[in-house]
Amino acid sequence: MPRRTPRNLLDRLRTPGRFPGFLKAASVCALIAALLSPLAQGTATAATASNDYCGGQCSDILPAGENGNATLAQILLNQAFGSQPAHAEDQLGPYANLATGASTLTDAKINTFFNDASFGVASDQVASTENPSGRTDVTIVRDKATGVPHITGTTRYGTEYGAGYAAAEDRLWLMDVFRHVGRGQLTTFAGGATSNQGLEQEFYRNAPYSEAELQSQIDNAVANNGARGQQALADANAYLAGINAYIDASDSGRYFPGEYVLTGHKDSITNAGTIDHFKITDLVALASVIGTLFGSGGGGEVNNAISLLAAQEKYGVTEGTKVWESFRERNDPEAVLTVHNGESFPYGTKPTTAQGEALPDSGSVTTEPLVYDATGTGADQSASAASAAATATALSSAKRGMSNALVVSGKYTASGHPIAVFGPQTGYFAPQLLMLQEIQGPGISARGASFAGLSMYVELGRGQDYSWSATTSGQDIIDSYAVELCTDDYHYLFHGTCTAMDEIEQKNSWKPTTADGTAAGSYTMRVWKTKYGPVEYRATVGGKKVAYTTLRSSYMHEADSIIGFQMLNDPDYVKSPQTFQTAAQHINFTFNWFYADSQHTAYYNSGNNPVRASGVDPEFPVWGQAAYEWQNWDPTTNTSDYTPASAHPNSIDQDYYISWNNKQALNYTTASWGDGSVHRGNLLDDRVKKLVAAGGVTRTSLVKAMSDASLTDLRAEDVLPDLLEVVNSSTVTDTTAAAAVTKLQTWLTAGGKRTETSAGSKTYANSDAIRILDAWWPLLVKAEFQPGLGDSLYTAFTNNLYIDETPSAAHGPTGSHAGSSFQYGWWSYVDKDIRSVLGQTVSGPLAEQYCGGGSLSACRDILISTLKTAAGTSASTVYPGDSLCSAGDQWCADSIVQRTLGGIKHYNISWQNRPTFQQVVEYTSHR
């Protein structure tokens, strides 16, 4: 079945031919002319930067561009003629060009591919200034190069008011989309496209909050954090006032985002209709989306139980458990680590004797329905498929997480100052989920990226003399409980009392609009909630009917992290690696945080890690009984005891740090599978380790290391050599196989990269070898493991961990054309198994030998047979095409697309596996 690029709202506006007749041809030009109304700009003034200690050596980049708003006229021009609003995609080209430009990179050329991230704007680079709403206590200066807002306030209120105003100027439509996603109301707001249905269902299942619950999270965050809590509330209210002031101004001035017209919320002729003001609970809804996407590790306990039972059925309880544990790789001794100095941080480890496990009876598990009473296009086949996909994604939070970091201590750099190249991989969207800004005001001094609608503080960026960034960590803060049912399917035993589940539902309906022609439809999303969290599955355990619930420590605490971000922006708070770590401790989402100033580097792993009852194995569901609850858990507030800061992986001034969502430290178990001998983190670790060993690291050499890793096929670099060793253990006589081996070896010798023959060629060097490996990998994995594991266990393990995640794979966490690749796959299993068959030493081997049953000759036969099949598989089969790419177009299949969340579309770029927002920093001095 051909892959399809996920179709987000307004994706239907790809071609002018899809506009109704009255919007076509000359009418388009006439309407555009009538709608164009240039905005008055203030007098250009200079901004000063006496508080910048980076010495011009801080850079950043965030494609496609800062401007994520477009009027109706600008959208029509883009769709009809491809023109772009100012600063809508001016960072896309520099970002894309690093793929072929890194080889000749020098320190002087870094800002050819990145922005100058110095504080302030030089007087000759000021494009505009404004005092929003005529306020005298805040000024927004935008630079000529990128249009980034530089917000300077003389009062705290004015500063945050300006931040809200600038956010709305750059991302109002996107902010509106995601507050509706967070509330489970996207289809009603933006249309009933199947992608919209899937998106709202995915998040509603994870965070089905009522309005009262959203407000209570704000109240609790404020009440529990003293003066900082009060300041956060004041900042949020000022920020909201700025957003709403822009809504009113753009509405009356008729320069609001054109998507409001195209989705039927505003009338382009009469200006009838409304754009709803934002309220403080919208910020919590937005935070729940971001936290769920990137900062809530865990889940998957029921799937783990299913695969464990399959292993025990195949091998018996003892050997089956051993096999399961070997594939789970909780603490694989060959795994690449962020804290690699030997320190141990035990968390989520296997107990000696498990207590309270509630494993389902074989074949009894069913997924809890979410959608009810569906009508029209809410009930058709595509809607059902979208709902199933959303459910699978929502229940697999352990399979999310992106971003990378490379940080080197000053001891190993040419200047003696630390260097960092780091940033989050948040996917590629138009407009981008993140936005750039600089904020200077009382108690705030920072520049960097923030999620749209949550930009009262910089979330990833730099302060006056330090920078920080994050990667998703994925340690387990989510547990599954089996609650025994009583009376009926909607009552359960809680501490011995038959208790009714709470029913919460969201009714949505939609009708066709210009933006989304999906026919009318409706449905109700219904979630049953217990004190142990929402119901996710139903099953029987020992014949008893149960509901499996999911409880995460950040549930009902989506707003708590605001305090940590407030601290990170405060120059009077963060003055050292220690104070940075303390700030990060106030962030309850699961992230790895990195820090660099002119003298020190640091790392801290954040998240509210619950202290589990003795003997509870977090890998599997446990009974919903007091004995197995988190220690001192309060079901009313969903609070409990958490592991102390010292128990979280942390470090100061290690020789270097790398992170690409790999294992944090010895004995620290993450929720996702795949932390084994081969992980994409190895691509960074191998390169940075060599740089550090040689010494004299520069910004250029560290950027080159990152870029080189971003173009490398992990399978080629770390697994293909062993596969070829088996194949070449005897002379390859088959001509087809021999030719394929030659092509693969040539590619491997060239570095195993997926890169263009030259800039803009849109053709890969060694393209045939890449095609062969892409076709070979799934064939060899299946042939290597399925015979030994058996169909049932093999399938169960593939549900725990994808076999592959190539750049063109549509099944990864963010779908095809998303850049991020090689995070999840069976490369570690293949690596360990093949090395074992070759007779090499393997630390933490699989419990059995699988390739050819452990026989080198039989394994070789399997590899050659599957290689011949792969070599004969056409490019059109390997890359079947989608709405963007024709079948067989390898480069296009891999390419990165800025997926449309609004009316503006951008060109696709060559694949890179790198952060979406990225910083390159080297501070020269300190306060």
Brief descriptors of the model:
single chain, 927 residues, alpha+beta, 10-stranded mixed β-sheet, 27 helices, 35% helix, globular, disordered N terminus
Structure described in brief:
With 927 residues, the chain is of the alpha+beta class.
Characterize the structure shown.
- The protein has 927 residues and is of the alpha+beta class.
- Helix content is 35%, strand content 17%.
- It is built from 27 helices and 30 strands.
- The strands form five sheets. It has a ten-stranded mixed sheet with strand order 3-4-5-12-13-14-15-23-24-26, with helices on one face. Strands 7, 8, 16, 17, 18, 19, 20, 21, 22 and 25 form a ten-stranded mixed sheet that branches. The chain has a six-stranded antiparallel sheet with strand order 2-1-30-10-9-27.
- The longest helix is centred in the N-terminal third of the chain and has 28 residues, at 226-253.
- 59% of the residues are buried.
